[in-house]
Amino acid sequence: MKRILNKAVVLALVSALILSAIPVLAEPPAVADAIWIEPYPGGISFDTSTVSVGYEFSIVLWAKSSRTCGAWSFRLAYNKDQLEYINCSYTGPGKSMFFKDIATVPVSPSHATLNSTHNRIDFGESWAGVGPMRAPGSDSLAIIFFRVKAVPFKYETLQSKFGIREFDVIRSPSAPKTYMIDSLNVKYGEGFDIPYVFTWAAPPRPYLISAPNRFYDRFTHAVGITFVETITLNVDAAWFLTNATFRMSFNKNFLKILSVSIDPTWNVASSYTIDNTNGWLDVFVETSANIGGNVPVASVTFNITAQGDYPTIYTSTLSFSNVVFYDHVGAITPGTHQAATITVEGFLAVEMPYLAVEPNTQVHGPEYAIGKEITVNIDIKRLHFAWKLIGIEFRLNYDPTVLEVVSVDEGPYFPSYAPYGTWFKSYIEPDYWGPHILVGELILPNGTGYWNPPYPGSATYESGTIATITFRIKQQPIWPDEITTYLGLFRIRGIGATGDMVPFEDPVNGTVTIRGFAGVGRVIDVYGGASNAGYGPFPDPWPAPYGGQGPNKPMDLVIPQSEVVLYANVTYNFWPVQQKDVNFEVEGPYEHVNGQLVPKQSWFILLKTTARTDENGVAKITFAMPWPCTNPEALLGVYKVTATVNIRDVIVNDTLYFYYDYMVHIFKVTTDKFYYEHCETVNVIIEYGSHAMQTYPALFVAVIKDELNVPFMGMGNAPVGGATFCTFENGTITIPIHVDKWMFSGYADIYVDCFDKDPTVGGFAWCPQYFIDDAIYILPKSK
After folding, report:
1. By the 8 A CB rule, do 700 and 733 touch?
2. 542 and 503, same structural domain?
């Protein structure tokens, strides 16, 4: 039976956090029943020496009551030309501190125009009708945040008030806007305003800024580089600055100005004069706007005209002189200006980097090597940070008849220099330049689109792995023959942080040699595959290494009730042995205990049979895996296949193991939280695993059924498999499900299934359904 949760309990659990810290009660009005604003009675007082446009602050509404209280409401008015409303909320977690122990019905504050000068904020709260009302006492109601919108003119003062009394429209017993309601539904209480005063006082003095500083190191060809320096004016709006005149000087020996762009803020008048011969720029700007903050004045485009040889260093300070600021009355004394510094080191050349296949030579065999996985690293060598390398692209050719690409993974080198992450991509290209792998990698820039040092490399040169490629051997000759295949790097391209191409020297390529298999004499090799509902190549075996090819190699996963095919290849000195009876035995299930295969309690001998080899020396059997009526999962586990044959009075054998199991195991299902409101999204997190060594498609479906059994669902695709034999390859998928407004509140269950594909196109379940009772709780309210 489901648990039924009381509505008040649910709301109490959801309201678990205090929204903000509210100051303790100061000196309330000297009446029995009052609603007032803190700080009372002094109000809000600023001056322009510390506060300017954009400053944010808050006020708090309080109440005290001599009666049992069931509700409160207020209308607060403020001067909309002086202040900007930000937001309003209760002072407690989901309710006011005044009603902190009382069940209430919360509302949202409203904000609207009151008259030509004032805006208003209406807010309130009422008893929910459950439990007692508010006993006599006092506490905070709401906190309201404002932003300063206007500053006073010089030597003047802005004055207004935060009004809950004066602007309580229609001050009559029947229609007040600020009040409390007692247990007899009678409105009572008196509102008290506070003043708002903003006085002019001399703020910090205005000053000019040239930015940013720039440094071109000895590894950069700097001649011809252009850059833009920004001139800004830091000024408080309380100065009411109208115009500015100044000179900016620079080093004419290696810099010249190409152009100047005056910011449109200066809408009354502007002019400038460039003198590259003597190294200065004169600027005049005038505006009708009341500017404040870091105000852009001009963008100046410079060109670097000279660079010495290292260790020569050129330096220029973009300094200011002849600075004059004016307001409507007279001159304003400037503050201390901030000047940018441009530094160009003398040029010093560095060597080019190169790529290398590591190890550049590999040898495999004479042991059985078909299906064996091998890896090579693509390393960058001799990299100097002066190249400012942030991206690279290369291609690696290979012989697909000898090697199969398993994976291409990002190496650790670029990520170690990437505080904002990397972009890594690879493609298997079948043609054009011949079969090859295309790899690209880029260090991602910061949030402004620039790359920050340190760049990859060092002053004494550096090496690192940028990609790791895993191959699977597909072909192996018979001893004494061998195969050598080449791994060749070509079309290598690098890019620097400034967009320039980075040159590379010739690469060091690689070779892979596969020596012939030396399994001479009497040999039997058992291998096979399974239908697995049509995903296997049945009746053909799985390709190496998934079919168990080679001595004592495992075969891939077999799903419940699947058809299995087993082959035994019998040879003598690599020549097929024909018309020989091969003996097969299949037994199991086993389980892994401390690294050992131990028979399960349900162990039995599934099959003993024989088959005769054909003209190619291959014997074949097929059978279907059992699935009894009672406790069929008891038969899941590892099965052992033994194949033996008598070759001229000598018995030889081979063993093969395979897992008999569901394709997918759903280990755990969780959600991102327990309580959900209507119109929220439930994130169902599914943790799963598979014993499959090959990769299979999977469609995960999550269904939530509400307390009255109404379903709503979500789904997502994720590949499963890729495991090492006898281990799980695990994964996680998150499925979002929207809680529609028509879903019933209360407890809800979660059901999770995994299909190979959608049932409407013939899909079926890879595993049993996973179920969680009372997984979440849908709250009786909406966002």
Report:
1. yes
2. no
Q: Name the residue with tokens 């999770």.
A: 752
The answer on 652 and 675 residing in a single domain is no
One domain, residues 128 and 86: yes
Query: Hey, what are 730's tokens?
Result: 């695990």
Beta strands (DSSP E) in 516-649 are: 522-530, 563-572, 575-576, 581-593, 596-612, 618-624, 637-647
Pair 39, 26: CB distance under 8 Å: yes
Tokens of 17: 């956090």
> Of the candidates 457, 482, 515, which is a domain's last residue?
515
If one counts every other C-beta atom within 10 angstroms of the C-beta of residue 164, the result is 24
**73 within a domain of the structure (yes/no):** yes
DSSP secondary structure code for residue 134 in this structure: B
Question: Which of the 8 DSSP states describes residue 13?
Answer: H
| Neighbouring residues of 597: CB distance < 8 A, sequence distance ≥ 6 | 590, 591, 638, 640, 657
Asked if residue 413 and residue 442 are part of one domain, the reply reads: yes
Q: pTM, whole model, 2 decimals?
A: 0.47
Query: CB-hemisphere CA count at 13 Å for 142?
Result: 21
DSSP 386: G
Identity (one letter) of the amino acid at 312?
A: T
Residue 272 belongs to domain spanning: 207-345
Residues 527, 540: Cα–Cα separation, whole Å: 10
Amino acid letter, 593: V
Walk along the chain (783 residues) in steps of 10 and give the mean pLDDT of each run: 34 33 63 94 92 94 96 95 97 95 93 93 95 95 97 89 77 73 92 94 92 89 94 93 97 97 96 97 96 96 93 95 91 94 89 94 89 95 93 96 96 95 94 91 92 90 95 89 94 93 93 86 94 93 92 95 97 91 97 89 96 96 96 96 95 96 97 94 97 96 96 94 93 96 94 96 96 94 66
Instruction: Please give the structure tokens belonging to residue 183.
Output: 């247990």
CA 138 to chain centre: 46
Contact 702, 712 (CB under 8 A): no
